Amino acid sequence: MARIEIVLEKLDGGIHVVKTSGKLDVFSYLELKQFLEALGTATPDLKVVVDLSATEYIASSGWSVLLSRRKGLKLAGGDLSICGLSDETRRVYDSMRIQTILPSANSVKEAVQLLLASGEAV
Questions:
Q1: How far apart, in whole angstroms, are the C-alpha atoms of residue 55 and residue 101?
Q2: Would you say 99 and 72 are in contact if contact means Cβ atoms under 8 Å apart?
Q3: Which residues contact residue 24 at a Cβ distance below 8 angstroms, ignoring those fewer than 6 apart?
């Protein structure tokens, strides 16, 4: 079995939900990086929610992918938010103090609202 599984769902309004499950670590981060880069190349002004509710562990390499892909998407007119952090991953997220550069929500619905609100602020 793969260390990480990635599933894509398209919502109304052109928002893409990328759901990961498993471990996002040094052995699997490249898979997510390549997936998000390919998605961004294929879709202009891409808005992505990364649903981490089934992701049991995120290493620093995984956080780096999420941060760098958000930066890349914003430069291209899109955006990225995350949701579904477990208690453990939430503690890491909070300790890194990256809330302003990688917005997080509790649910996909709330993460979509974050993306829509950031688009209105532009």
A1: 20
A2: no
A3: 4, 32, 52, 55, 57, 58, 59, 61, 62, 65
Looking at residue 50, its amino acid is V
Q: What is this structure's pTM?
A: 0.93
The pLDDT tens digits along the chain (122 residues) read 578 999 999 998 889 999 999 999 999 999 999 999 999 887 878 999 999 999 999 999 999 999 999 999 999 899 999 999 999 999 999 999 998 899 999 999 999 999 988 766 44
Whichever domain contains 43, its CATH number is 3.30.750.24
CB within 8 Å of 33: residues ≥ 6 apart: 65, 68, 69
Total number of domains constituting the chain: 1
**Single-letter amino acid code for the residue at 24:** L
- Residue 72 belongs to domain spanning: 4-121
Is-contact 49 115, C-beta < 8 A?
A: yes
Length of the chain: 122
